[in-house]
Amino acid sequence: MYITARKKDTSKLTATMTLQTLKQQIDQGALPFMYLVTGTETALIQKAHRLFSSIIDPAEQEMNQASYDFAEVGIDPILADYLSAPFFGDHRLVLVENPTFLTAGSKLNADQEKAFLSAIERPVPGNLLVLFADDATLDKRKKVTKAVMKEAELLDLPALNERQTKQAIQQFLQQRQVTMDNAAEAELLLRTQASYSKVLAELPKLLAYAKESQTIDLAGVMGLVPKESTAQAFDLADLVLKGQKGAALELYHDLIKNGEVPLRLNALLLGQFRLLLQVAGSQGSDQEVGQLLKVHPYRVKLARQSLGRYQPTKIRAGFLSILDMEIQMKSKTVDPVFLFEEFMVNF
């Protein structure tokens, strides 16, 4: 049996709240009545879902566990479920995705807000409410958001940095007695932009590839792991800045043949040049700058490496030319491939 209680002074705990801490709370049977889960690392958020679900006995989950998307159902069914007593069990678990009422873009009406605040101020014993939100969009000035952040246990699951992703890969492979050479690891990180969630999604294929040799090599990664669109945009921007017109045009044509839409490809290229300019004017660690710009720290690292090779004036000129190309794509009936070819010739 778990004990749910109002949140006490947890200022020290919230600074270090992790999935391990959550598991300890579950194992010890002492849980707060509400959690606010933030972060962008999909794999960790999915693990949090599994941990929360473990609170309810599998035989009782159909009756005492519910998941809602606030953007689809609104607050009324969520409150009705959360305020109901557990059905033939000790606990009821209510999981809520997209609680946009905590952001500037959405709000509850006066009666709904009053009902929600009353529910979290006087929680039903044994019931747990878990809100999964994006911290970057929370409006921390709103009364309802302030109340949630005051009463809830805060669990933040940000994107893992490159070092943490490498450690996770090594631990995953060691548990399965498989090795990966340095070249393969570097290429895997490049193709997934060092996203832990994306790496995790690709590892089963690589394990199958290494079933006999127990080794993942560069050929396996290059043959099985597709490049993320951001990685492709980085490659294209690098060729543009190097002035390698033939190679840039060849890659551009290949991407179009593989289904990339010219306007989207142009937007990716524009975004890469914008990132280079933003990173050039920023200070702090890759992690800090990544959080500020809302991009993965690995992209900041790659951008800084590029800035060591190219003059900011050239990057700025490229950005303006690509921006002009986008305007022409949207306003004229000119072949976008021709526009890119013209850009490469002139640049």
From TrEMBL:
Gene Ontology MF terms: DNA binding; DNA-directed DNA polymerase activity
Span of domain DNA polymerase III delta subunit-like C-terminal: 232-347
EC numbers for this chain: 2.7.7.7
Gene Ontology terms: biological process: DNA-templated DNA replication
A Pfam family matched in the record: DNA_pol3_delta_C
Record's keyword terms, sorted: DNA replication, DNA-directed DNA polymerase, Nucleotidyltransferase, Transferase
Domain (DNA polymerase III delta N-terminal) ranges: 35-155
A GO CC annotation given for this chain: DNA polymerase III complex
Catalytic activity: DNA(n) + a 2'-deoxyribonucleoside 5'-triphosphate = DNA(n+1) + diphosphate
PANTHER family: DNA POLYMERASE III SUBUNIT DELTA
Recorded family membership: Belongs to the DNA polymerase HolA subunit family.
Protein name per the record: DNA polymerase III subunit delta
